[in-house]
Amino acid sequence: MADHVLLTGAVSIDGGLSNNTYFCDFLARALGRQIEVPGTADLTGLGIAQLALIGAGLATLSFLPSAPPPRRRVETNLPLKREHHERFRNAVERCRNWR
User: Fold this and answer.
1) d(CA 62, CA 76)
2) Three-state secondary-structure class, residue 12
3) What's the whole-model pTM score?
4) Measured between alpha carbons, how far is residue 44 from residues 40, 53, 56 in Å?
5) What CA–CA distances, in Å, run from 74 to 12, 17, 32, 89?
6) At residue 22, what are phi and psi to the nearest 5 degrees?
7) Which among 20, 26, 44, 57 is most buried, taking Cβ atoms within 10 Å?
């Protein structure tokens, strides 16, 4: 079995760090993928509210609007310095299976 999985496509991020342009640029460079920042800063809260509506019988999945369009997209063709990429990889490895 492979040690890692190659992912493609954009990565959607939300929350407080999604407002940090440095972090978004760094993440795009580290992953080599486009970063999408949604129109709402907290998709988790939106999802919880939608589940509550469904649970209360006030809405159905087909009735709910789709996620808001991205507020911005971050792309970069600049590579990350080798030492920064290694530190990022190390941080990801340390977080795996964290309990």
Assistant:
1) 36
2) strand
3) 0.67
4) 10, 14, 18
5) 10, 13, 11, 20
6) -60, -45
7) 26
